[in-house]
Backbone:
């Protein structure tokens, strides 16, 4: 099994499917959203039209990702769900329905997110021994979510895509993270559930670790270290 190289001084973590998980299993559709966009009803619609609507709505989010406030985020997600509703008129959604769904997506915390059972205990064991950072594709509401679940205080630095204006594996994400961490790339590890994201980090000199907690997780490439859950990083570090 691949190991980490010495010496590790800093550890970056992704958030989704690493420390946090969506209660519904889908980041874009909370439990409330699924009441208005039910899977069973969407399955009755032409699959090509549903896929095209989701692609268009996601494309809008991707092209307008530099944000500053949760109010801006709310406006984005209201437009996201409105695009879906316009493309899928059979759902018969009103403006009020869409406002509720967008508000819930941005401002609700406990009902929409959960922390992996071993996340906080792992961070507690790492804090003070290593510099800890976050590299995550996310929106402004993530800070209140992390604070709500008691995660914010464990970290020394944060690289959020909405602040950088691009998504992993764009090199700017890793450059931003390394600049804030203040360590040599080879002294840092990145734990993420996406192989492409990790390959981007590796190209920037960071040691990659694939986490496979996500249902249907990607296969780990040869030569890349992996862990099943976030606590697995403890054993990897002990073996360096």
Residues:
């Amino acid at each position: 099994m691949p190991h980490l190289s010495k010496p590790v001084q800093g550890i970056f973590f992704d958030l989704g499917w690493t420390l946090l998980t969506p209660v519904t299993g889908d980041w874009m559709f909370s439990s409330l959203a699924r009441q208005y966009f039910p899977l069973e009803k969407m399955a009755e619609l032409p699959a090509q039209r549903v896929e095209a609507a989701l692609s268009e709505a996601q494309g809008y989010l991707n092209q307008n990702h530099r944000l500053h406030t949760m109010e801006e985020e709310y406006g984005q997600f209201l437009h996201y769900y409105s695009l879906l509703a316009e493309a899928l008129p059979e759902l018969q959604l009103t403006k009020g329905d869409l406002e509720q769904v967008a508000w819930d997506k941005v401002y609700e915390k406990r009902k929409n997110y959960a922390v992996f059972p071993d996340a906080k205990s792992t961070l507690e064991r790492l804090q003070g021994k290593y510099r800890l950072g976050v590299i995550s594709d996310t929106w402004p509401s993530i800070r209140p979510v992390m604070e709500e679940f008691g995660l914010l205080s464990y970290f020394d630095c944060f690289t959020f895509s909405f602040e950088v204006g691009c998504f992993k594996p764009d090199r700017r994400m890793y450059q931003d993270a390394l600049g804030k961490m203040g360590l040599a790339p080879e002294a840092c590890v990145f734990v993420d559930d996406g192989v492409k994201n990790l390959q981007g980090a590796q190209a920037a000199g960071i040691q990659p670790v694939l986490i496979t907690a996500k249902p249907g997780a990607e296969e780990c490439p040869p030569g890349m270290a992996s862990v099943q859950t976030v606590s697995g990083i403890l054993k990897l570090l002990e073996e360096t």
